[in-house]
Structure formats: structure tokens, C-alpha cells
Design brief:
331 residues; 2,3-Dihydroxybiphenyl 1,2-Dioxygenase, domain 1; 2 domains; ten-stranded mixed β-sheet; eight-stranded mixed β-sheet; 6 helices; globular; disordered N terminus
Amino acid sequence: MANRESLNIFGASSMGYALIETNRLEQWRSLLQDGIGLHLDCADQQTLAFRMDTHQRRIIVQRGDQEDFIAVGWQLRDQATLDEVLRRLQRLGIEVQISDPSAAAHRGVRQFWRVLGPKRLAVELFWEPLTTDQPLNMLNAGFITGQAGMGHLAITSRKPQQMRRFWQEIFDARTSDHIVERIAGLTLDIDFFRVNERHHSIAIARLRGLQMDPIRTRVQHMNLLTTSVSELTEAFLRCRKLGFEMAHEIGEHPNDREQSFYVMSPSGFELELGWNALVVDEAQWQTTSYQGISLWGHRPEKTGTLHKFSTNLGNFARGVRSLLNPEYSPL
């Protein structure tokens, strides 16, 4: 291979958009527009499209039966970065499909290149978003986007090494840190990876010693960042008033020091809204391991014994069922 250093694309990619499939469009509209406070830019019988900045579309919710997160748009800095990523995919033997104009317009980009990523989550590469200077009409004063992207994804996996390879070998992801969390007598190992100055764009979780995945959906949660603690608390109160269950109330993480809450989405995965997440200084950063996902807070809204029992039983049953189906990995 040519000089590997000259091909490094760290800092040249970020999370660009989310594509969700559901038959609960009205509930999703309520959560994202009235709860989180996004700008609803398009609404019809088949599609909801939301803005949070100058990108025409950041979250697209389309009608369908999956009730799942089906694709993440991954923004690349320029054509040269796209060309390098496509070369890497070719070397790894990963098939790439080029979008048609209607599919690209649906996502708010000029064109995208689709690959089937780990856990069959489509990763759609693009570098030219469609933008607009039309003013935003949002309950939330603003969101942190820019070159670091619109947020992050957390994914559970039975093949964490292969998933790690996908993000490291294709996007030059770097390890930020590691958290060990104990849940219902089980140990969860979580690795956090950054592809730019954002502390992490991908988190990969696995059950230690068990080849099970207790999460039904491709993504365990998606994160967005707002601009102030007042915007965070106001969104929290709106979501709770609307009747959405808080998977975890407001708390603070030890690694990126982000304060956030997690609300259950209509499709069963969680949506995290946070603020004040640290920006990594590459010259000073040291990888660290932490015990526990939270410094304080992040308590579940429902804490009763019956709810804990039913939740743990459901997670265990999903984990057992996951043993019957192999987890897809492109590597």
C-alpha cells in the first residue's frame, strides 16, 4: 500500500442524517417536533422530514413495517475523501450501490453511495448535502452540528471486533475510551470511537462472556446535541408532558461529560438529547477506562419491581432469540 499516513481521512467524515422506518408517523412527529423541538420541513402520508440547521433533511421518518433505524447518512468532506473510501471498500470486497435521483432527494443529498454495514444498517456515503437558507421554526433554540456532524450512534453487537474494523479501516476511527457497566447482574463493555473532534460518533457495546444481543433494533440509541442546559431541560419537560417514557432521566456521563436524557422512541430504540459534550484535543487526549456509564442521574423513569422484571425478562428473551440468527458483518 502507498504511504498510509497520506491517506488518513480522520476528521473528514461525520454523521449526516438518519433514516427511520415506522408505521407510527404521528407519534414520531410529536416526539421530534413537539418534544425534541426540531423543524418539521415536510409531512405527508408517507414521509416526515426534519431540519435542525441549513441541511434540508437531517432526520427522515418514512412509512414502513420495520420500526427501526434503517440507514445512517455518513457525510464525507469532499470528492477526494469519497474516492478514498470507495477504494477502501473495493479492497475489502464490500459492495457499493449508487443512488438514483429520487432516493437522493428523499434524503436531502445530491447523491449517495450505499453499503450494507454491520447489523444490516445501511451506511450511505455522501459529500454534497442539499441546503437551504430558509429560517428554522423550532421549539429548540439550536443544535450542535457543523463539521463534527449531527450526533452519534450506539450499537450493541455480538461481533464487536468486526464492527470495530469496519469503522477503523474505512473511516480511520480512533478509540476515545471504554466504559464497563453492570446491568441486571451482567457486564456490558462499551467502546467509544471518534472520526473527528466529536468525542464519539460510534459507540459499540457487547455483553461480556455472552454471545447475545438483547436489543431488537439495529441501533440502541441515537444522540443529538443542543446548545444549552436550558434547551435540554425544556425538551425533557416537553417530552415528559407529551407522555413519552424516559428510559433515563437527566444525568452526566464520565467520559465526554455530556449531560443528557434518553427518551424511548415510538420504534423502540432510544433518542438521547444532550449538551456540553467535550471536544477532543488530539494533542492531549489519553484513552481511559471508566466504571459506570453515569457520574450522576440517568435514572430510569419507571423503577418498580414489576417493570424491572418485565424489562429484564424481555431483554433476556430477545438475547436468546438473537442466538438463532447470525449477526451480519461485511468484514
